[in-house]
Specification:
133 residues, 77% helix, 5 helices, mainly alpha
Length: 133
């Protein structure tokens, strides 16, 4: 057996990031964030079931800047993962695998996740609720 180390793939040191590699890595990262989001949801539900004091403490956490950032990240992760999952379903049927189509749908996934997150926040925080009181 040889004791020389095996050569490593050039990996990220050589290759430029492409939209397909960026969306693939982001898909994995958003999946991890969604798992963390379920932990946050469980914490909130347990606080709700525990009583008013625990619920107020949980709401205070989610109202803080770090809580809002975490929830925002989870919401974006949900919409991004949803869009990219649909893209992967299309790929499973053999559609959209051409380089130009994959590039366009990659950008659609990124912008779709951003737009859906913004619209969700506008709906949740009442921007569209206006009208006469």
């Amino acid at each position: 057996m040889s004791t020389r180390p095996r050569p490593l793939s050039p990996h990220l040191q050589v290759y430029r990031p492409q939209i397909t590699s960026v969306t693939s890595i982001t898909h994995r990262a958003t999946g991890l964030l969604l798992a963390a989001g379920f932990v946050l949801l469980t914490y909130w539900l347990l606080a709700l079931a525990t009583g008013p004091e625990a619920y107020l403490n949980a709401n205070a956490f989610f109202a803080s800047w770090i809580g809002r950032a975490l929830v925002g990240g989870v919401v974006f992760s949900f919409f991004y993962h949803l869009c990219n999952g649909i893209r992967h379903l299309a790929w499973d049927t053999g559609r959209g695998l051409e380089i130009e189509v994959a590039r366009r749908t990659g950008w659609f996934v990124i912008w779709g996740g951003i737009v859906m997150t913004v619209v969700f926040y506008l709906l949740v925080f009442g921007v569209f609720r206006g009208g006469a009181s």
